[in-house]
UniProtKB/TrEMBL annotation:
Cofactor names: pyridoxal 5'-phosphate
UniProt protein name: GntG family PLP-dependent aldolase
NCBIfam families registered for this protein in UniProt: GntG_guanitoxin
Record-stated family: Belongs to the threonine aldolase family.
tRNA-binding listed as a keyword: no
InterPro entries: ArAA_b-elim_lyase/Thr_aldolase, Low_specificity_L-TA-like, PyrdxlP-dep_Trfase, PyrdxlP-dep_Trfase_major, PyrdxlP-dep_Trfase_small
This protein's UniProt keywords: Pyridoxal phosphate
């Protein structure tokens, strides 16, 4: 199977497997796992924050951040196309008593400052309104095709947030893809946010885990929330070792994924019946539409799956494909050929 549903399907490298088998271990709930402690120090440094906490998942990392930043009864301003709003099971409302205020997401993944301003209460002293406690942004933006946010926009957002007394949390699940694509170090990207989550288990290829980073007091509070959510771990150094390898050896190679994504998009653009904008592909996510007569999304996905290619439906009539370390140029060429065959056969069957 040519697996293009997500970069979460990456398998750990041989170096990761070796590191996991040799990891020095302790009880992380007591703060005594040396491998976890080392990873957290490395992770904090890599994104320019004073402290970091290893979380089992990006969902828990984002949820912990929201619960620390926003008091019960408050609200978070979040994109209506964001992972936090769409794909994290409403956790902030269920667990934190936090209201989501969905803000229109623009095609480049940004939230317009005017739209954010419109979500602020006209009178903060009026007890009828839920008070905003946080602004969330996503970088790169998954539903907008893996688009990295510009430094100029992030600086504007930071100034807006400061002016209104609000912290900023960045869901940076793929922030290192943003760094590689833009040439801006992850620490400079993260400097515009008070807290940041990033995944070790996507393009970086670790088997499990995400990092939440921020100020030291914020991270201490987040550890308490992690425990409350059931995320306290014991000998977590087993997978922290893989995370350390991920940060030290797999970041730069994300550029290979971006090149494969561009190659796949260029190939799709040659197929009559596929609508894709190769110029919009800047990292490892490709969004496209099937326009060939006789093919709806479900039929298309079943047809390519039968031929050995896995992709996913992504809303708004789009298909998503994601490149990662488990693919090479031959896989991408074969994927293009499979799509072309499915479209051709659909046309011939009419």
């Amino acid at each position: 199977m040519i697996e293009m549903r997500s970069d979460t399907f990456t398998l750990p490298t041989e170096q990761m497997m070796s590191a996991m088998s040799r990891a020095a271990l302790g009880d992380d709930v007591y703060g005594e796992d040396p491998t976890v402690n080392g990873l957290e120090e490395l992770a904090a440094k890599s994104v320019g924050k004073p402290a970091a906490c290893l979380m089992p998942s990006g969902t828990m990392a984002n949820l912990a951040a929201l619960m620390v930043h926003v008091p019960r009864g408050g609200k978070v301003l979040v994109g209506n196309e964001s992972d936090i709003y769409l794909y994290e099971a409403g956790g902030a409302s269920v667990c934190g008593g936090i209201m989501y205020e969905p803000i229109r997401t623009r095609p480049d993944g940004t939230l317009a400052l005017d739209d954010l301003a419109a979500a602020l209460p006209p009178d903060p002293e009026d007890s009828q309104f839920a008070l905003p406690g946080l602004i969330c942004v996503e970088n790169t933006h998954n539903r907008m095709g893996g688009r990295p946010l510009s430094q100029e926009y992030l600086a504007e957002l930071r100034r807006f947030a400061t002016r209104h007394g609000l912290p900023v949390h960045m869901d940076g699940a793929r922030v290192f893809n943003a760094a590689v694509a833009t040439g801006v170090p992850a620490a400079e990207i993260a400097a515009h946010a008070d807290s940041l989550q990033f995944c070790l288990s996507k393009g970086l290829s670790a088997p499990i885990g995400s990092i939440l980073a921020g100020e030291a007091d914020f991270i201490e509070k987040a550890r308490r929330v992690r425990k409350m959510l059931g995320g306290g771990m014991r000998q977590a150094g087993v997978f922290a070792a893989a995370g350390t390898v991920a940060l030290t050896s797999t970041v730069d190679r994300l550029a290979d994924d971006h090149r494969l994504a561009a190659r796949f998009a260029a190939g799709l653009a040659e197929i009559d019946g596929i609508d894709v904008d190769p110029g919009a592909v800047t990292t490892n996510i490709i969004l496209f539409r099937v326009t060939a007569p006789g093919l709806d999304d479900d039929r298309f996905l079943r047809a390519v799956q039968e031929r050995g290619l896995a992709m996913g439906e992504f809303g708004h009539g789009r298909i998503r494909a994601v490149t990662h370390r488990g693919l090479d140029a031959e896989d991408v060429s074969a994927a293009v050929a499979i799509v072309a065959d499915v479209v051709r056969e659909a046309r011939e069957a009419r």
